[in-house]
Sequence to fold (402 residues):
Amino acid sequence: MIIRDLADAELRQRLRHAGLRLHTGPFTTLIQSAIPSVAEGIAQLYADFPLAPADGFVDFHVHLAPPRNLRRWIQPQVLFLHDDIPPFEPLPLDQAFPMLEWGLNWCVTTHAQQYLIIHAAVVERNGCAAILPAPPGSGKSTLCAALVNRGWRLLSDELTLIRSDGVIVPLARPVSLKNASIDIIRAFEPTAIINRESRDTAKGTVAHMKPPSDALARVAETAMPAWIIFPKYAAGAITQLNPRPKAQTFMELANNAFNYTLHGAQGFALLDRVVSACACYDFTYSRLDEAINTFAELRPQP
Amino acid sequence: MTLFHDDTQWRFVDPQRLLFRAWDDDTNVVCYDDASGDTHLLSPLAAAILSHLQRESVLRLDAVVNHVAASLDVEADETLVLAIEEILSEFTERGVLAQI
Fold:
């Protein structure tokens, strides 16, 4: 059973009371919230996600609710609670759905220590994964959103989960888009489903794109890392894919990992395995169609 | 002015604590320190010093300089000596190396 099988009233009822049990990649999350925008976002962007059985194990219990103070009535806010504890300060109520997304990322990065977790988008084609680590503003999510609308499978737009045997475990969830990239993706792929914008967040204006149904249908299929590509959007730039030294790539990946040091020598060996298996590049682009063509030409290293 | 006397010898505090990884496409080397959990990106010079010390157990400064000059095909001049002393000092402060 998937989310879209639930009538809207049933979805809201579950969210208000017992909670909605959602499978996202290897995790099960129980979400509770009476906030309409949370229900709308889930109905729109998680429509193809499978529901978890009512008696199954739940990894994360999360609740989005207004804080119990006077601001409930003036300039209302929303709190994200994990096991009834708020790890963050409240945000304006209008940011409830982005806060759910950011909170779910937090749940994974602070609890799923069985994986080496890299702050990177990751997409797959023919069983080979391209890891796209980059700082905010580099155009990582924009490129990821474009690629998954042109034949690449979304594994994650934010968190690359690397298992101890070196394979990448999919965690397909809505793709985060910020500021200009929202309209860029709307223009690039008019059929993409993008929810309503939340303005004035810490990241500017944000919206999320529904993951392609293919990403959810194949969410159990792991992928082998084949490329590590550091994207950089620069207005007017010529599309360039340049080889990048592996030692420097190793260090950048380690710096982009949430829990590399936690894994100690095993983390070093695992990252060595991943970097050694991959062709490594710096990628500069300004035009998405050219970027897509460049990615289409990628071949795994021999 | 050198920081150390000429007869200073160097050794690893624990030779097993460092793991090195190099790739053919890069002269830099990645080094993992199992005691601190830190990972370092080593220059070719630092990598030559540490890997040689790890093999030889104990070395005098002049032996380190001669080995590095030969392995990197550079002149064993004062500039090289100062650079090596700086690296030895840095890794001593990190507790990786010790003087004896």
Chain A has two domains: 3-111, 116-296.
